[in-house]
Design goal:
With 205 residues, the chain is of the alpha+beta class. The chain has helices spanning 26-37, 66-72, 75-87, 107-115, 145-152, 173-181, 187-198, 200-203; strands at residues 17-21, 41-45, 119-128, 135-143, 158-159, 162-163. Helix 6 (173-181) packs antiparallel against helix 7 (187-198).
């Protein structure tokens, strides 16, 4: 974003306003500062979270260094880091430690599969939790069966955040209903599943 001197509009109806969630740290904080310096009134939300709470890291860079904003500020790379951490049990890239090398495994494997069309990804929208005002980016990834089987052999039972729920659910109306009728699913996750089912013809084409 190009920085500009802050200018105030005399008419409050024309004063540009930006709403930034997760603005206490990381990318959210950097964006809020940039917008304020560019002349926006900035409304921010954040919350205090326990160490390791995944809801505090919707799209943080892997390490707090200036270069990571350029290399990590990618929805696909954020998804890959989540797969690496959550499914494969690798160490979390949560702002501490060394920057991620995306030409190393398992990131190179994910990149090859996506480039070859064996993984197809979409962003279905952005949601805001009604109680916490935490922003959530709703994404879906469709794996070819053989590609998923190749990944599945390395999926762990437990990662740093707890146990993996390893239940295969058929992508059918009945299967989706069973998932949504269950207990404990966050609204953002439920909304993402509903959107995936609504757009299933496009996602599976």
């Amino acid at each position: 974003m190009t920085r500009a001197a802050r200018t105030r509009h005399t008419d409050p109806m024309t004063q540009p306003v930006a709403f930034v969630t997760g603005a206490s740290r990381g990318i959210g904080k950097a964006i809020a500062v940039e917008l304020a310096e560019a002349g926006y009134d900035v409304a921010i939300t954040a919350r205090t979270v326990k160490e390791g709470d995944p809801s505090a890291r919707t799209a943080d860079p892997s390490v707090v260094l200036p270069g990571s904003l350029e290399t990590d500020f990618s929805l696909w790379r954020n998804m890959m880091r989540e797969y690496s951490e959550e499914l494969l049990g690798n160490a979390e890239h949560d702002g501490d430690g060394a920057p991620v090398r995306y030409d190393d495994e398992p990131f190179a494997w994910f990149d090859r599969a996506r480039r070859d069309g064996r993984i197809r990804v979409w962003c279905l929208g952005v949601a805001v939790d009604a109680l916490t005002l935490v922003g959530e980016i709703l994404t879906v990834a469709v794996f070819d069966a053989d590609t998923f089987d190749e990944l599945a052999k390395d999926i762990v039972d437990v990662n740093d955040e707890g146990s993996i729920v390893n239940i295969r659910v058929p992508f059918t109306a009945a299967g989706i209903a069973d998932v949504l009728d269950g207990q404990g699913m966050a609204p953002g996750g439920a909304g993402c599943i509903r959107l995936a089912w609504t757009h299933r013809d496009r996602l599976l084409s």
